[in-house]
């Protein structure tokens, strides 16, 4: 099924034809596990209190001999309340990456995902990226990652765009061609409370588009994991934990205030529809702000004692939402 869709899209792309425009979602036709309409309803019709609260910890950019120390310090030996190991997701770009260390992360049960080969700083490049550009950045990177980090090709399923700059349809078109599952680059500020659950692009998305262009074509079977924004103390939205800026965040040396700030954002999910809660950061943010790192460790210690909260990689979230 997926194969012939990918094949048709390849043919359409080769002939320079437009992709079909996505229609409004038809909830009768669009059913799990292959399809899900965009929205805030809990998959499977579960009640919130029966729904596991997933916490998604992600780190972006190159993995190297310096930041691996932070990853080991935070994650080695850490377990969820059910005694399973926690998992984080690493969105890795090629430049400056040490693949021996990527292999270590993978073997410790973490998820390895793609963040482009070049991570070039020209944001216009990403905004205007063609399908061929995205093949070179992501389809090629998947092969490169599997080879150099010695990871099974089909264990690499996720993409995050540099600067969260969406490319319209082209990234999703490439994901569909090579059968990759999901993108996690698309922030939402309109569907934060209740938060938006992951959904597919078979049909038109109702998600707001803070960093256009967002996809509007029907690209069956590709998933969007909306980045549900945090809200800072002045009511502004931040798509990543390190994108909330002073003075609207607690002082970066105040552990107690940062612990409460993280908790406030977490509770917006936990006491609502339990859409996955993201702690999306770059490693430097924790290693250069020891009080914030301590606050985050306290947060992880706290959730390790909650029987319905799980710090897992995205891959695990999918296994759940596909049921
Ligand atoms: C995405 O595809 C749709 C349907 O072909 C098209 O209308 C839209 O312009 C495309 N988006 C971009 C940014 O090219
Ligand atoms: Zn990056």
TrEMBL record:
Residues 51-181 form the NodB homology domain. One of its GO terms (molecular function) is hydrolase activity, acting on carbon-nitrogen (but not peptide) bonds. Residues 1-16 form the signal peptide. Keywords: Signal. One of its GO terms (biological process) is carbohydrate metabolic process. It holds the Pfam family Polysacc_deac_1. It comes from the Eukaryota. The keyword Methyltransferase does not apply. The keyword Signal applies. CDD domains: CE4_CDA_like_2 (cd10975). This is Chitin deacetylase 5. The lineage of its organism: Eukaryota, Metazoa, Ecdysozoa, Arthropoda, Hexapoda.
């Amino acid at each position: 099924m997926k194969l012939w869709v990918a094949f048709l899209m390849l043919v359409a792309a080769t002939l320079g034809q437009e992709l079909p425009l996505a229609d409004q979602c038809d909830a009768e036709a669009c059913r799990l596990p292959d399809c899900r309409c965009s929205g805030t309803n809990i998959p499977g019709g579960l009640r919130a209190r029966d729904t596991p609260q997933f916490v998604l910890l992600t780190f972006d950019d190159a993995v190297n001999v310096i930041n691996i120390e932070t990853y080991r310090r935070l994650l080695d030996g850490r377990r969820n309340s059910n005694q399973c190991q926690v998992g984080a997701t690493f969105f890795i770009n090629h430049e400056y990456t040490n693949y021996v260390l990527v292999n270590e992360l993978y073997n410790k049960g973490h998820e390895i995902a793609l963040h482009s080969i070049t991570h070039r700083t020209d944001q216009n490049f990403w905004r205007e990226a063609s399908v061929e550009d995205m093949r070179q950045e992501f389809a090629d990177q998947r092969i490169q990652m599997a080879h150099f980090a010695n990871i099974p090709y089909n264990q690499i399923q996720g993409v995050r765009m540099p600067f969260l700059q969406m490319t319209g349809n082209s990234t999703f078109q490439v994901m569909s061609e090579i059968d990759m599952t999901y993108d996690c680059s698309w922030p939402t500020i309109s569907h934060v409370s209740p938060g938006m659950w992951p959904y597919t692009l078979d049909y038109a998305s109702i998600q707001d588009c803070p960093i256009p262009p967002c996809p509007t074509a029907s690209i069956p079977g590709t998933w969007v994991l909306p980045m549900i924004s945090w809200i800072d103390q002045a009511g502004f939205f931040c798509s990543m934990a390190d994108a909330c800026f002073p003075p609207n965040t607690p002082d970066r040396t105040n552990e107690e205030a940062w612990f409460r700030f993280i908790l406030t954002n977490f509770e917006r999910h936990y006491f609502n529809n339990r859409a996955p809660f993201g702690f999306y950061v770059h490693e430097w943010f924790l290693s250069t702000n020891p009080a914030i790192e301590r606050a985050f460790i306290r947060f992880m210690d706290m959730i390790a004692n909650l029987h319905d909260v799980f710090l897992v990689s995205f891959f695990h979230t999918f296994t759940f939402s596909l049921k």
